[in-house]
Amino acid sequence: MLYYFASMTLRLCTMTLSRSLLAFCLALPAVAAAHEQHAHEHGVGRLDIAIEGRVVDIVLAGPGHNFVGFEHAAQTAAEREALAATRASLQDGAALFGGLAACKVSVEVDAPDGDHDHDHDHDHDHDHGHAKDAHAHGAADAKTAHGDEDHHDHDDHGHTDWEATYRFECPDAIPPSLALGVFKAFPQTTELRWQAVTPSGQSGGVATPAQTTLQLP
């Protein structure tokens, strides 16, 4: 499960390579080890944010239970519909992260059962485009570090983890705070342990359904 956290932060590093974020990336192995003991706790997820200029990279991850309510392979029509609905909700970055509605967003979702949805671009200003190459390289590097992508979704105890990666390219300055819609979209998520890094500093904390606003550094 150490790979689970490390892969998220690796993606952020490969997507944001400026000198100002280098120290953060170099510290990730120690951070990943510190969070290993908290891996796969139902209701608890992780949110990693990196901001540079007018670009925001976000990784949202957690046990499948947090998002779809179960972690076994979908066996019924209702469960398959629930999986499809969950993926659709994860694709709606503007709803999950309030304050970024004007930005063009590309989304990549790693889901169980071998499903891997990526390169979905949404432009809320109707200026359709392609995600930056760095986004694709980040996913490729994370896969290389793991060696076998299928193991990312399933661990030895039958647990499944979901991960969604977002890149927001914004026309204006990034707001000083984000309003999370994650708890409304996925009620079984009860806690998000988040960290954010920008050229001006780092911050982090715990978001809950009662505290959904993140103050960015």
TrEMBL record:
<dbReference type="Pfam" id="PF10986">
    <property type="entry name" value="ZrgA"/>
</dbReference>
<protein>
    <submittedName>
        <fullName>DUF2796 domain-containing protein</fullName>
    </submittedName>
</protein>
<feature type="compositionally biased region" description="Basic and acidic residues">
    <location>
        <begin position="113"/>
        <end position="158"/>
    </location>
</feature>
<feature type="signal peptide">
    <location>
        <begin position="1"/>
        <end position="32"/>
    </location>
</feature>
<keyword id="KW-0732">Signal</keyword>
<feature type="region of interest" description="Disordered">
    <location>
        <begin position="111"/>
        <end position="158"/>
    </location>
</feature>
<dbReference type="InterPro" id="IPR021253">
    <property type="entry name" value="ZrgA-like"/>
</dbReference>
